[in-house]
Design goal:
alpha/beta, globular, 114 residues
Length: 114
């Protein structure tokens, strides 16, 4: 959408699938020179520690490529699981909805321009 990449994660992700998504997303951010990436996890009902670590890594890699990333749509059960698993997500920007996430990405861009 514009200069932002939108990634929607859905279903029950197996380890190989999320690793492929990681490669695809980082490759597409680099190829398209996306300025931001919105990662929508609202379609995930369960997240294990491996999937959570990969999502965290995707955000870190997107930042290393010079783009911003925001994760949106974290369900309450998923948030609880992430806290209980102790997955480090302090560097991950989040928002409740895709609309709020896009606004957050645009806000960061404006801050950098100043």
């Amino acid at each position: 959408m514009g200069d932002n990449l939108i990634v929607m994660l859905q279903g029950d992700l197996e380890d190989g699938t999320i690793e492929q998504i990681e490669r695809d997303v980082t490759r597409e951010v680099a190829r398209s020179q996306a300025r931001g990436a919105l990662i929508d996890v609202s379609g995930l009902s369960v997240v294990d520690s491996f999937v959570a670590r990969i999502i965290s890594r995707i955000v870190a890699m997107i930042r290393l490529l010079g783009s911003d990333a925001t994760v949106v749509g974290i369900q309450p059960a998923v948030a609880l699981a992430l806290v209980e698993l102790g997955v480090p997500l302090k560097h991950v920007a989040t928002a409740l909805t895709a609309e709020q996430g896009m606004a957050r990405l645009q806000g960061r861009r404006r801050e950098r321009a100043r």
